[in-house]
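The records we work with from here on pair a chain with its fold. Each token is a code from a learned vocabulary of local backbone shapes. A record is reproduced here so that you can trace the correspondence yourselves:

_____
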Amino acid sequence: MCARVQRVKALIPSQLGEGMLRAMVRHMRSGVHRLYAACVLIVDDDADAADLYAMWLRGAGHRVSIVSDAQRALILAPILRPAVVIVDIGLPGIDGIELVGKLRELPELVHCRYLAITAYSDPSLPGRCRAAGFAEFFEKPFLEATLVKSVFAGIGSSSRASVR
């Protein structure tokens, strides 16, 4: 059994749901993930956190790029045309909410799914993030399964799923 399938089986079924877990295992066994992996852009100034999220997503078969600030994201995102952009809310300079507002204005990213991550525990943040266009909001720390599940959901909802 391949290592990816073992990792998926090790995920907590209550986090994914039994049906999603089975679908992911079938998907990984089929090898289809090699053809239809999502292009994911991670925007986080915490290099260790960004590397960890990238490792999780690459383990699930996705192509991942990392940038550490909003300016680089504004340059790279239209070129990559990612299916999913994971944005840290507490970026230096332009914060994550403002960044997503700018990215959503770009025609190349009209079908992109945005995921917010933060270490801040402000009760108003989830509502502000949804209003800004984020599909989901994650407060650090969160489980690998939570992020992987959300990115897989982004493949189905986005016409920008990349083909390798």
Q: What stands out?
A: The first strand starts at residue 39 and ends at 43. The two ends are 23 Å apart (CA to CA).
